[in-house]
Amino acid sequence: MTEYKSDLLRLLSERGHIHQLTDAHGLDALAQKEVVVAYNGYDATASSLHVGNLASVMLLRRLQQAGHKPIALMGGGTTKVGDPSGKDESRKLLTEETIASNIAGIAKVFHRLLRFDDSATGAQMVNNADWLDQLGYIDLLRNVGPHFTVNRMLTFDSVKLRLDREQPLTFLEFNYMILQAYDFRELALRHGCRLQLGGSDQWGNIVNGIELTRRMNGIELFGLTTPLLTTADGAKMGKSVNGAVWLNEELLPHYDFWQFWRNTDDRDVGRFLRIFTDVPLDEIVRLEALEGSEINAAKVVLANEVTKLVRGEEAAKAAEATASATFAGGGLGADLPVWHVPAEGCTIIDALVGIGFAASRGEAKRLIAGGGAKLDGMAVSDENQAISLKSGEIRLSSGKKKHGILKPL
User: Fold this and answer.
1) Is Transmembrane among the key words of this record (predicted)?
2) Residues annotated in the binding site, as ranges?
């Protein structure tokens, strides 16, 4: 591990946040002598960020913890274009009303994880529509265009991926890297921003912004990327069998969010505690050394700490209580997903699809055939089994980790 002198880079290194740095020595020296203003950008393609975005939000939190100033840049302008990085096809174009609504939803998590005030290290939320919407196209072409060559733009992975697969890359998307570079320049001029943060897939875009600002204004900027986060089995971080693990409670119940972290692979516990929580490093060393069934205690700490940060302390307590009632006591936790059974009853297949444990009737049949469907802990083997709730609520389970409640309509 590289020995850094600044509190900022030492903290980021110890917590596993650093993948690449454009000028490690220069940034380390800058962070020792002044407050560094840094930003990360978020396009408003949905009404919530997901777990895959959480590492970058924690990066802004670490920056503030080390005595520096974070900027959360909302992509009100760039969302209208769409970032082709890592995408196989063009994004659906969103209306301005939808983008504004999505930004309002996304903003919630930042207000939980960052401190917003007027101090030197108080976080700021900025919208790149403030300058991108004002750009005259000809002015942009004349002032910024000469600093980009098509030859180099064609070498970026976001472009090569589409071309290699013979999938269309629109001229609109082709301009995204220019706009992101322009964002860095504008933030440097408007807010004194010196550092751009991002995932490893954003390295090229970050370097573009550094070079553009140096050529146009002679300002030295820096870039830092985080490692590509995958789970120990190689899966992309932030995805579950049911899709994205959303940070906002409107899109994912507290219990499901908590349970995602509780189900972490044993091999990932220490790494995730470093990146996604504020648990002290010496305590993490102790927790990640646990073996056998004892590692489950570390997973509960992970689930509680992340849920507390993202959803609040009450949400974490409720989710753990639900898990305890469901797993330890065999009861029906109050925070489990619920599906209401019609008065005339239903089949086990109807219930599995209705509560969301199976995406289709065919998937429900395969779950039953594999012995994964249970009613009150008893495996169901007959796909035509009828369910009535004359005797009260029933716990429906899919495998060992997914549980819900069937209630009378």
Assistant:
1) no
2) 39, 176, 180, 239
